[in-house]
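Section 3.1: Structural characterization of target chains.
Under the original work plan, the team committed to producing a structural model for every single-chain target entering the pipeline before any wet-lab resources were allocated. The record below documents one such target. The sequence was received from the expression subgroup and is listed exactly as submitted; it comprises 82 residues.
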Amino acid sequence: MEDTVRAVLRDVLALSEDRVAAFHATTELFGALPELDSMAVAGVLTELEDRLGIVIDDDEVDGEMLETFGALTRFAAGKALI
């Protein structure tokens, strides 16, 4: 799951492979990555839906799920299990 989330962040936000490879569970995302603004969030979530075959409802999107790389990965993994 981490590989998929890394790939989505790399592709949607146009981040370098090295930069994304350095992400760990506590790496801050929203508010810390200038590339991840409110418009980019929609692209990231849409791409996660497409790649994982999941549906993310609007009411599931909050600051906590986007706070860190680990939180986003856990959220995606939880959705993929449903």
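The chain has a mean pLDDT of 95.
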